[in-house]
Amino acid sequence: MVFTVKSLSDSHRGLARRRTICAQEKNFMAKRDSTPTDIELKRTEEPSELLRELVAHLRQNRTQLREEWVVRISETRLLTAMTKEEIFAEATSVYDSYVEALETEAFEALQAYARNLSERIIPRGVETHEVVGIVLLLRDVLARSLFAKYQTDFKKLNRILDAYEPAANRIANTVAVGFVQERERVIRQQQEAIRELSTPVLQVRERLLILPIIGVIDPQRARQLTEQLLRGIRTNRAKVVVIDITGVAAMDVTVANHLVQTVEASRLLGATVIVTGLSPEIAQTLVTIGVDLGKMNTVGDLQGGIEQAERLLGYKVASITEPN
Amino acid sequence: MEVPILKQGAFLIATFQAALSDADLNQLRMGLVQQVVKFRSRAVIVDVTAMDVMDSFASRTLREIAHMIRLRGAETVIVGIQPEVAFAMVQLGLTLEGVATALDLEEGLAYLNEKFKITNRG
Amino acid sequence: MSVGEIRVEINSDQDIVVARQKGRGLASELGFSSGDATLIATAISELARNIVSYARTGEIKLKGIHGSSRIGILVIAADDGPGIMDIRQALRDGFSTSGSLGLGLPGVRRLMDEFEITSQPGKGTMVAVKKWRQ
Questions:
Q1: Cα–Cα distance between A260 and B95 in angstroms, integer?
Q2: Is the pLDDT assigned to residue A243 strictly greater than 80?
Q3: What is the pTM of this model?
Q4: Which residue range is the domain that position B41 belongs to?
Q5: Is residue B42 part of a domain?
Q6: Could you tell me if residue A3 is inside a domain?
Q7: ipTM at complex level
Q8: C119 contacts in chain A (CB < 8 Å)
């Protein structure tokens, strides 16, 4: 009997896309190495020579071209969050990295630079369209200067552009991707921080942690709670944990399982778990999934749970309902 | 792979490494029991702090170690399970049921000292 | 960054360790959290262990994958072993199982996000699992 759920469509699509990218890269390489059929290429006009020539031109005219670019940036009202001095400083390093990427084709280095740059400017409030915008402006400024230089030799201009355009486009792409990746990383970090803030693990006494769970728990939040609790047990060297679920309305089987797993995982770290605030409905759910409530440490309410925890830890607890 | 087993008074402390193969674990199981008999130890602390993955075989081996050592009249405490490893273990349903656990070596020793109410001389 | 496919031949119990270490390495490279990398390495360990126990030889393939705007890891455990007679039974998920019985497949499924299995008696087994970066 063959039991196949479904085909691995995602990985097939990924494979197809990789093949397309490989084909694109092959085309890119082929274009650079191809020879035109009309005239014989002189040595000085081979693609790598052309690239060197254009890089030399861009370096020679660095001051002027950079200035032109900065003017275009303020004309199109990009980077409004930054001062003129800041723009100038960043523009210089971006210009140099751009030209260096053209020369060395070290795009990994460029992407690392882009992420680095993004790390600096994202807190300043710079947005994706601005970063893409200024890189494209630089591409245009440099292209115009190439037009101006080679305007008398149309065939040569074409060959220069053949060398310049794919590289320039790849640079724009690389920088944009680097920026977006950094943005995504920041967003993930912020989301994680928010989640942590909204699910506090409280240390009330030495070796005793309380985790009050309130509201609706979805599997992702449940899992995050467990991870936080386990880390908290380790950091606080907790020997007893009181998980209070008084504030939990309903619990489905998945989340109930998470609770059981949390209790078991805590034990592996040497901590005892007391569950308080178990409603009859939730108790029923736990029994349904096969939990032996007799083995789970449960107490009616949070106060009672804390008292039992203190007893377990060896604290003397004065209680009016029980003799000491 | 050599796993260091230290004698601390009436206890043995075995520190498991990260990449133990099945063969290593099998050897350990035999070796630990032999050492318990040889030194007439009261307990063994197995420190798994360095283990970054605990799978079903490792878990089963630990339970078997504890069982065999109990047959020799001694106690076993597993210490140092990392939070992430504990989380992965319970997903797989590996609970080390019936084996004592503690947060780390310090807690393990405190647990045993409490249990046996003796002071340890190094 | 392009990540190719990593293949680990599974012939002995030592290969189990190799496979899970490579898995953890790839997971880190792909940007998974340390906790998730542990889950992935554990799943690989169990899958590789099944190969050793039931098929004696097989291979584990590891690959970084792209979904719609997210990154993940794909693990394929394949062998030419005896195959599984009753897959439904093997996948039955009782949360009270000790995990040391049978193939531990329900556990592996819980560790990962997506799970697929193809198996036929006499034709071997292939388990493919994926985990996505949060």
A1: 11
A2: yes
A3: 0.68
A4: 5-116
A5: yes
A6: no
A7: 0.93
A8: 2-3
